[in-house]
Amino acid sequence: MDALDRVLKPKTKRAKRFLEKREPKLSENIKNAMLIKGGNANSMVTQVLKDVYALKKPYGVLYKKKNITRPFEDQTSLEFFSKKSDCSLFMFGSHNKKRPNNLVIGRMYDYHVLDMIELGIEKFVSLKDIKNSKCPEGTKPMLIFAGDDFDVTEDYRRLKSLLIDFFRGPTVPNIRLAGLEYVLHFTALNGKIYFRSYKLLLKKSGCRTPRIELEEMGPSLDLVLRRTHLASDDLYKLSMKMPKALKPKKKKNVSHDTFGTTYGRIHMQKQDLSKLQTRKMKGLKKRPAERITEDQEKKSKRIKKN
Amino acid sequence: MEGQSVEELLAKAERDEAEKLQRITVHKELELEFDLGNLLASDRNPPTGLRRAGPTPEAELQALARDNTQLLINQLWQLPTERVEEALVARLPEPTTRLPREKPVPRPRPLTRWQQFARLKGIRPKKKTNLVWDEVSGQWRRRWGYQRARDDTKEWLIEVPGGADPLEDQFAKRIQAKKERVAKNELNRLRNLARAHKMQLPSAAGMHPTGHQSKEELGRAMQVAKVSTASVGRFQERLPKEKAPRGSGKKRKFQPLFGDFAAEKKSQLELLRVMNSKKPQLDVTRATNKQMREEDQEEAAKRRKMSQKGKRKGGRQGPGGKRKGTPPSQGGKRKGAFGGKMNSGPPRLGGKRKGGQHQGGKRRK
């Protein structure tokens, strides 16, 4: 509880900075991922975790020891780890006869499990099995999702959101165009999800935009969706709530209609309509003779009243 | 001839352009959806080519990936660019995909007592210099902290002030005063925190997670759980020493709409009779209870006054004659009305009865 944190004041500036980094903020830190091995993780699963750690460096923590927990039964130990290492994304690998080569990807909200999706690894080619040059660690990847399955079912939609969250990296305002180096491609086909990562080669194409050639670089996984533990709708809504300060400001007095026309509103002060400047019509202009007679009439009226 | 060559040139230029564009254009049935802030593209086209591929669709996957990446790169290259230290940098828009936060939105902390006061008075924090000139050491020292400018604790001589006891330890006094100031500051900080915490709790909608609930909350939760059965709690057993919940019955009881017609007629006629009669009907029990309560209150007030006066003057008048009997007008009626009760009462009240005091009625203690 944050109140308890504040009862015990930090005694050093370093401790204070540490606590400030972990407290809830308007615009959040980059999410850290923790990669955990289960009690019975085999070599394939361990290698997968190592490869994902390489992709997620420096925003990831790879736990070296095996942890005997079952995420789907008991989430307390995962939540404890998340609180200690301030990680809101996690990946848990295990292997048993019933669920071979199991990988659980999940995310947390307020140090409690929000979503968890279990994937089975059917085929895996590691980073070190593909012998070519890799890109430097810490580059922001491009993400591509192919296949209409990703929008059809709720499970797939959440999986897509989870994968984006996991792999997207820091949010930057500018990006160096030559620094776009690798792309992660997810395809949903026949109930399987193919995860491939390619290195980008920019070739000349005559015009400004280069032609792209791809070279397979990194881990490639064939995944199958197993169990899911998705957050209830209201918890998910709560976690998506954006603070008011970050919402885009609405421009007042401007409206758009369906045809694309923009309407604006102007607020005027009160006008005396009799003194309005209208178009001058020369034919309706009063001639001097008429004006004199009008004045006389007015005068006589006034005398009558008095 | 020239016209023809010009036309030819134009046609050739067009063909060249088309070729170039062909190298970077990709034909897709459905347009991709781009979120350039996240460098994300979503392809909604059904992967028909892949379905035909068979067990190892590597080449097809790579081709699909190449196409999609080409489209994404085309979009990225259209963003506004600038040159930053010999690198071409594109300015990315805000990410449009909404992703859940990792921690809840921070709540604005309620102001402390000092902040409220300062806001009210319009006091703003004064900007202070970091270093202060220290006469004693002849150098600039920091305002507070290690080796500060005016350090009280380092004085080796304290003059005994005029009115103080000469045997008092002034150094200890100074240390004590400092400890008291620190304690007071800590107390105020905790009080501010408690006030802030109390303010923040109401947003939990009165519900707390298990383990943090108060006794009343648990009791309420237990009662609600008991009643939430198919038979609305009628067949729920209670624990051996558990007491029945009080106040869980109906608050008001109404007569049924179509009940006993004879009884209804009788009660309506009685009501009319009472309203028509000249003599006022007196409910003796209620009247006597009211009277006795009033008397009690008067006596209590008098006793309080007496005790106050007694304290001031040091002497005390015995608060005699407290229990004045009931006024003579009602005396007879009372005895008559409670004849029945007195007969049943005595065995219990025998020991404690003082003449004329515990006569029937419901006595408020």
Automatic annotation (TrEMBL), chain A:
Q: Could you tell me where the Basic and acidic residues compositional bias lies?
A: 287-298
List localization entries. Nucleus, Nucleolus
InterPro entries associated with the record: Brix (IPR007109), Rpf2 (IPR039770)
**Residue intervals of the Brix domain:** 31-234
- GO-annotated molecular function: 5S rRNA binding
Is Nucleus there in the keyword field? yes
| Composition-biased stretches (Basic residues) | 277-286
- Identify the stretch(es) annotated as Disordered: 270-306
What GO CC terms are in its UniProt record?
chromosome; nucleolus; nucleoplasm
> Which Pfam families would you find in this protein's record?
Brix
Q: Name one GO biological process term.
A: ribosomal large subunit assembly
Q: Which UniProt keywords apply?
A: Nucleus
> Among its keywords, does the record have Iron?
no
Q: Which family does it belong to?
A: Belongs to the RPF2 family.
Q: Which PANTHER family match?
A: BRIX DOMAIN CONTAINING PROTEIN, RIBOSOME PRODUCTION FACTOR 2 HOMOLOG
**Protein name, as recorded:** Ribosome production factor 2 homolog
The organism encoding this protein is Ailuropoda melanoleuca (Giant panda)
> Coding gene?
RPF2
UniProtKB/TrEMBL annotation, chain B:
Start and end residues of each stretch annotated as Disordered: 202-221, 229-255, 272-365
The region annotated as signal peptide is: none
Q: What are the subcellular locations of this protein?
A: Nucleus
Q: What's any one GO cellular component for it?
A: nucleoplasm
Key word Ligase present in the record?
no
Q: Provide the GO biological process annotations.
A: endonucleolytic cleavage in ITS1 to separate SSU-rRNA from 5.8S rRNA and LSU-rRNA from tricistronic rRNA transcript (SSU-rRNA, 5.8S rRNA, LSU-rRNA); mitotic metaphase chromosome alignment; protein localization to nucleolus; regulation of signal transduction by p53 class mediator; ribosomal large subunit assembly
Keyword set, alphabetical order = Nucleus, Ribosome biogenesis
Bias type Basic residues, positions: 302-325, 350-365
Primary subcellular site in the record, as a coarse category = nucleus
Q: What InterPro entries does the entry give?
A: Ribosom_reg
Q: Which domain of life is it from?
A: Eukaryota
Task: Enumerate composition-biased segments (Basic and acidic residues).
Answer: 235-245
User: Which GO terms of the molecular function aspect are on file?
Assistant: 5S rRNA binding
In UniProt terms, what function does this protein have? Involved in ribosomal large subunit assembly.
Which protein family is it in? Belongs to the RRS1 family.
Q: What is this protein called?
A: Ribosome biogenesis regulatory protein
